[in-house]
Automatic annotation (TrEMBL):
The lineage of its organism: Bacteria, Bacillati, Actinomycetota, Coriobacteriia, Coriobacteriales. It comes from the Bacteria. InterPro entries: RloB (IPR025591). This is RloB domain-containing protein.
Length: 126
């Protein structure tokens, strides 16, 4: 999940509607309001109608103070941090993308990548 003005990011390991509920809860108790909240999750094997439902629920949860947005990665979330590290247009499935990201992180930062690892955003945002 990524949020607006302050550039705050949080990995929750949640997907689709569970991620929206998590974001709403965080926003409800945040000391400063968010203007935009982006819910980012993997495509995985979720059916298309579930993604459509998340978009509708995001629109319903949005108000004049905060707008919720659904954004899913295809084939996987790892494509986003990978593109922060290197340019590629190579076709990849999720396994190849995860391996390429792991190889890039190991080579550039000496870091062993694992799914849902903490500190990834701070590492690649330098």
């Amino acid at each position: 999940m990524a949020a607006g003005r302050r550039g705050w990011r949080s990995g929750s390991g949640k997907h689709t509607l569970g991620l929206l509920e998590y974001a709403e809860e965080l926003c409800r108790y945040a000391p400063d309001p968010f203007d935009h909240v982006w819910l980012v999750f993997d495509k995985d094997d979720f059916p298309a109608d579930e993604f459509d439902r998340v978009e509708r629920e995001c629109a319903a949860a949005s108000d004049s103070a905060c707008t919720f947005h659904a954004l899913w990665s295809n084939p996987c979330f790892e494509v986003w941090p990978l593109l922060h590290l290197r340019y590629t247009t190579a076709p990849m499935d999720a396994a190849a993308c995860q391996k390429t990201l792991a190889d890039s992180l190991a080579r550039e930062f000496g870091v062993d990548y694992r799914k849902n690892m903490g500190g990834l955003f701070a590492l690649i945002a330098l």
